[in-house]
TrEMBL record:
Keywords of the record: Transferase
Name recorded for this polypeptide: Glutathione transferase GstA
Gene3D superfamilies (alphabetical): 1.20.1050.10, Glutaredoxin (3.40.30.10)
Organism: Rhodocyclus gracilis
InterPro entries attached to this UniProt entry: Glutathione-S-Trfase_C-like, Glutathione-S-Trfase_C_sf, Glutathione_S-Trfase, Glutathione_S-Trfase_N, GST_C, Thioredoxin-like_sf
Gene name in the database record: gstA
Gene Ontology MF terms in the entry: glutathione transferase activity
Domain of life: Bacteria
Length: 204
């Protein structure tokens, strides 16, 4: 498999999932500014949508969109318990989290990365994100991970998105359960491996 990613972007979520899975894969870096690969080739020729993540299977089939990709990865290695069993209520709770993170958090960060967004738009985005993350904080009270005791691909996605808080000046200091969860997830060897591979952590 090949995972096309951009360092620190939402593609870090499937990168973490792949690292957790133990499956063999190749990570291919994409520039989000030039939409080219390191060898200069045009990413649009591979993915007409032009954005990451993109997972290319050994069969040549393509999977777009992080929530779909991470579930596919999890289902290849059910013994790793990265996602609950298909058809179970717990699986629908996982999908609930993936949808919430995608629509209520991930997209809400967009104005904060847009240089053309007005100050009012950015302030509104921070207010909305603050309210949503406060709810997440309440859900993590007494829980190790989003689904309880077991790490899942939803944790990988939330960790990726909340990594963006510091660069855009979003204060998480009043969300102790979220901060404790972030520290716990950040210590996982697979998370460290994925972030190191993307150049997000300094190596000794």
């Amino acid at each position: 498999m090949k995972l096309y990613y951009a360092p620190g972007a939402c593609s870090l979520s499937p990168h973490i999932a792949l690292s957790e899975s133990g499956l063999p894969f190749e990570a291919v870096r994409v520039s989000t500014k030039t939409h080219t690969l390191d060898d200069g080739s045009d990413f649009y020729a591979i993915n007409p949508l032009g954005y990451v993540p993109l997972l290319v299977l050994d069969t040549g089939e393509h999977l777009h969109e992080g929530p779909a990709i991470v579930q596919y990865i999890a289902d290849q290695v059910p013994e790793r318990a990265l996602a609950p069993r298909n058809g179970s209520f717990a699986r629908y709770k996982l999908q609930e989290w993936l949808n919430f993170i995608s629509t209520e958090l991930h997209k809400a960060f967009s104005p904060l990365f847009n240089p053309n967004a007005s100050d009012d738009a950015k302030a509104a985005a921070k207010q909305q994100l603050g309210a949503r993350l406060a709810w997440v904080d309440s859900q993590l009270n007494g829980a190790d991970y989003l689904l309880g005791a077991q790490f899942s691909v939803a944790d990988a996605y939330l960790f990726t998105v909340t990594n963006w808080a510091k660069p855009v000046g979003l204060d998480l200091s009043k969300l102790p359960h979220l901060l404790a969860w972030r520290e716990r997830v950040g210590k996982r060897p697979a998370v460290i491996a994925a972030m190191t591979a993307e150049g997000l952590l300094k190596t000794a």
